[in-house]
Write a structure and sequence with these properties.
Structural class: mainly alpha
Distance between the termini: 69 Å
Number of strands: 0
Largest sheet: none
Amino acid sequence: MNKDELNERIRNYSYPLKSLSGFEIICESLVYKIYDIFGKNMLLSMLYQIGMGPGEIIANRIKAKYNKNFSRG
């Protein structure tokens, strides 16, 4: 087998990935991990520092998807 044949056999073709979906999963995991470890105040502080708009969007998506509520109860 020559070099070109070997390269063709081990070639890793790239397929279009849905990177936004992966980013959402990572962000959602981060939100839950911070909430679990540090509590609601730290989560709210982090979201406030990032910006109110994205934080509200993330919170609304989590509420809609998992029927979770981060308010006092």
